[in-house]
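For reproducibility, we list the full input for the magnesium ion complex.
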Amino acid sequence: MKKIAVLPGDGIGPEIMAEAVKVLNALDLPLTLEWADVGGKAYETSGHPLPPATLKLAQEADAVLFGAVGDWKYDKLERSLRPEQAILGLRKALGLFANLRPAICYEQLTHASSLKPELVAGLDILIIRELTGDIYFGQPRGRRTAVDGHFPGADEAFDTMRYSRPEIERITHVAFQAARKRNKRLTSVDKANVLETSQLWKDVVTEVHASYPDVELDHMYVDNAAMQLVKAPKKFDVVVTGNMFGDILSDEAAMLTGSIGMLPSASLDANNKGLYEPSHGSAPDIAGKGIANPLATILSAAMMLKFSLNLPEAAARIEAAVQSVLAEGLRTADIWSEGTSKVSTVEMGDAVVKAITTTKTIKS
Ligand SMILES: NC(=O)c1ccc[n+]([C@@H]2O[C@H](COP(=O)([O-])OP(=O)(O)OC[C@H]3O[C@@H](n4cnc5c(N)ncnc54)[C@H](O)[C@@H]3O)[C@@H](O)[C@H]2O)c1
Ligand SMILES: CC(C)[C@H](C(=O)O)[C@@H](O)C(=O)O
Ligand SMILES: [Mg+2]
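The corresponding predicted structure, in tokenized form, follows.
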């Protein structure tokens, strides 16, 4: 029996997680699910966004299924107590350096994208974001009084962008190996024309390329990459980039697929132990309304079955069920368009479960 830590979190987190759990239960797999509080919810109940019991459960589990954390009402808390520290703390404590964010535009959602249908039809790109380094974790950081610069004596804040060679090497290997299993094209995104961390990034990626001569590599500055993603997204296959650029580009890529509510993610350590979460946040603006799209979380559960639990057939059944509900015309509000049927979060989860059980009946 494999153990899954289920951490719903805040905002729409519990709503979307309930649907993903429903889908997992429908598959009748040898899994034990254990719940724990995380984020703002955990701060309310135990004074910390990532309480020791939650971290312990995540460390002991075979995989973690994560909803989302955060709410504007915590923005005034000291940084170490803010909900977002829970996800950052989990990534760091579990060594989840490789973040895989596939952006697939399902045929039925071609018209839900804000881009012209011909630009996104058939889109299938994979963004690989380094997740435990960069300006997110670099020290020192803080506040101080400026002693130089444009305004000496003024309040100033500073963060440190840093990357070491081994950190870049390991994510680059993940990216080349992923590209090898796909269309054998890798784009490394940096800002080497300005940043020293990016120059090291580019040098190391180029060196590692020597071990993957069958994969075509190109380098692109991040500003141009942001533009190319909306100009000609299908030219990309696999994109590898640092933590900060990857955060921004993956949200941008989400819109190519129709909605951020469609974008799952896997965050993996060196042994493919992982945390699985939708790429979106807690969406406080729509929380409690029953309208959030649960498909990113459901598809994240599928990634969990594939990458950490070695259950690729079960994962494929979820993916097929998602395709089938989209083909039926069912849409949550974020992906709704004229001529399709608008459904709630729960109705979408129910439909995926129904599609799974129907396939089971047909097969047996
Ligand atoms: N990993 C995480 O837990 C995570 C990720 C991103 C943001 N956050 C946090 O979430 C909070 C809100 O941040 P934000 O508004 O910038 O980003 P967000 O991703 O929560 O929301 C951005 C927009 O997308 C919509 N959206 C997001 N998920 C959706 C879904 N499943 N279905 C339909 N619409 C959806 C929201 O309604 C909103 O309009 C903040 O506290 C932020 O720090 C957490
Ligand atoms: C909530 C925040 C810390 C997080 C990030 O910046 O990594 C989120 O935006 C994401 O993309 O998972
Ligand atoms: Mg983000």
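The pocket of magnesium ion (ligand 3) is lined by residues 247, 251 (CB under 6 Å). Residues 100-263 form a domain with the Isopropylmalate Dehydrogenase fold (CATH 3.40.718.10). Both points were considered when choosing residues for closer inspection.
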